[in-house]
Amino acid sequence: MERKTFSQLPLGVSxxxxxxxxxxxxxxxxxxxxxxxxxxFEKVFLAxxxxxxxxxxxxxFESLFKYGTRDFKGLAIEKLWKDKTYKVIRLDFSNLKDFSxxxxxxxxxxxxxxxxxxxxxxxxxxxxxxxxxxxxxxxxGLQPSNSVVxxxxxxxxxxxxxxxxxxxxxFVRKKLSRLYASFKNYEGVIRFxxxxxxxxFNKTSIFSELNTLTDISLSPRYGSLLGxxxxxxxxxxxxxxxxxxxxxxxxxxxxxxxLVSQYDGFCFEExxxxxxxxPWSLLSFFAExxxxxxxxxxxxxxRPYALLEYLKSHALRHPxxxxxxxxxxxxxxxxxxxxxxxxxxxxLTQAGYLTLKNxxxxxxxVSYPNEEVKTSMAQLYTERLLAGRTVEQVGADNISYRLxxxxxxxxxxxxxxxxxxxDYQKYPVRDExxxxxxxxxxxSGAGLNPIVExxxxxxxxxxxxxxxxxxxxxEFKVCNSENDGKExxxxxxxxxxxxxxxxxxxxxxxxxxxxxxxxxxxxxxEFAEV
Length: 530
Prior knowledge:
The protein is of the alpha/beta class. Helix content is about 40%, strand content about 15%. The protein has helices at about 15-20, 30-35, 55-65, 100-120, 130-140, 155-160, 165-185, 205-210, 230-235, 240-250, 250-265, 280-285, 295-300, 305-315, 330-335, 345-350, 370-385, 400-405, 410-420, 430-445, 485-500; strands at about 45, 85-90, 150-155, 190-195, 215, 325-330, 355-360, 365, 450, 455, 460, 465, 470-480, 510-520, 525-530. The strands form four sheets. It has a five-stranded parallel beta sheet, covered by helices on one side. A five-stranded mixed beta sheet has the order 9-12-13-14-15, with helices on both faces. The protein is elongated, with a radius of gyration of 27 Å. The N and C termini lie far apart (about 65 Å).
């Protein structure tokens, strides 16, 4: 089928045959797939965040090995692929998450493999009284040489369910290690083995049992295997770009700039040159551009189970570090993670909240890939700051609308609702930096883009944020005693005046505010508009 006949977005379609049969847009990655398959790699692992097309990739491999080039007409691999067809076993371990005990997991595992065997018309001798799990491994060992392709999607799903239960985690690990050991023992049977996941857990036996497994997660060659490059967006989605620009009443260049800042910026390769769009977010935008640049990734896939389970027993990196560039040893991203010593930065990077920005020597520097994820992260921090509550539940909703419409006194009371609701046991306000950082988190979580310590020729302000036609400039001071509030307020007012914070901005309305926070009362006690 010719590319010109593609007229539908592939939103929510993870079955390659269905996608092609319905004539939906397919961004041709098959040249990269062919490159991968003709190398010496016979066992491959790929880690990517949720909603990046891992399941579609697995389905693409399934179609290629099971039916040859039946579904690949007009694609790069059609004239290149000469291999035969194979028995393809596709395992989706996201089906193995509904358990809380060892017995439940064992039953679920046997049931899943019994169904899998029935679907694939796999039988074993009736004399063998194995459960479904053991029957599959027995069957695998009987197959001819180089005759089976095994594809495992979300290999880590059963493990993330029990991240906070060491005993159950170890049981699941040992149970699954039997499967990985069979892949090693019968490796002559397997033509190709491909696994996907979000995290790369150590001591799960997958990476020790399969010591020939090649991890391409940070390979420069496959950095754009999942996700859309800038060039691919312009080539495959031109009609949708035109339609979106028209719907929003903006020019095509302005639209692209907004799409890049909102949904682009993910980097999955160690040269830090190739950046890609999040497919789910971009396609969701194209489906309803008149809604504007919404946050799609967070609600659909930005809260992976691994992260939520991790947060049950670990404190999220302190909100004061929300806006900072973070560093991590490159080895923490390229090697397996021990569940007991899992780095929060490594997990956030694997989950897509952070992405590679630079690599210097053996150190990787990571930060938020785009505005969508930056907002998502601020929403997570907000929930942690407010002890699991939302801004609506503490009576401080519509932050963006209030900043756009209400006066300084109203914003003073709004901030006090937020700061008085902070979980001070875990996140105490200690100083001016804490106040500034927490305000940044609250504003960012509302979808705004606050600037901390904005420089001008005379100094740097604490926090500035643009909301519609308004431009807010905040100068914070912190006092230990309420008696110092008036004096500090005068100091903050003079600082705003002398440093001329915000006056260089060409905005319809500039609101410059001095705010004094009392550590004793845990709230703002003085304010003034300058």
